[in-house]
Write a structure and sequence with these properties.
Layout lengths: L7 H13 L1 H10 L3 E3 L2 E6 L3 H10 L5 E7 L10 E6 L4 E6 L4 E5 L3 E9 L2 E9 L5 E7 L11 H6 L1
Parallel strand pairs: 3-9
Antiparallel strand pairs: 1-2, 2-6, 3-6, 4-5, 4-7, 7-8
Length: about 160
């Protein structure tokens, strides 16, 4: 048996942690960290069921929710660059989403959200009220060379 080279220890450790679920839980804990920028509180995450449940429980504290997926399958998108501006163009938030779900607490008014994934930007104009959660969905075309997706019909049949 060949000895493991020192550089490989990190990869071996990461594999071991991934198999035990520890890496997933550590990522979920950091992904669900509440942040603030220009007076707007926001949080992103949703990788793994623990993170999705945590964010769902927090929804009542926010009035804007963004869900990012691939077209036709609902496969989640992570690491999209999200920019949130007022309708007049004032930039409020610019961040990289830690998962497919993004929540923000906004003053009532009109906004524009842009999200860029794999150099493709999706944009939506929307209005929020102070007392109600408004949800927007952004979807990107799947890349068959990079993405493994299951069409809704096949997923529902299982």
């Amino acid at each position: 048996m060949k000895p493991v080279k020192p550089r490989a220890y990190g990869a071996v450790l990461l594999m071991a942690l991934s198999m035990t679920g520890i890496a997933h839980k550590a990522h979920a804990a950091t992904a669900d960290r509440v942040q603030e920028m220009n007076g707007v509180t926001f949080v992103s995450g949703g990788i793994g069921s623990d993170s999705r449940e945590s964010l769902a429980a927090r929804e009542k504290s926010y009035n804007f929710k963004l869900v990012m997926t691939l077209e036709g399958s609902g496969t989640f998108v992570a690491d999209a660059r999200v920019t949130l501006t007022t309708a007049s163009g004032q930039k409020l938030i610019e961040t990289v989403a830690e998962g497919p779900l993004f929540l923000a607490g906004l003053p009532a008014g009109a906004y524009v959200v842009n999200a860029t994934f794999r150099n493709v930007t999706q944009s939506k104009k929307f209005q929020v009220r102070a007392d109600r959660l408004h949800t927007e969905y952004l979807r990107w075309r799947a890349d068959p060379q990079l993405d493994v997706t299951t069409p809704w019909e096949e997923r529902d049949a299982k």
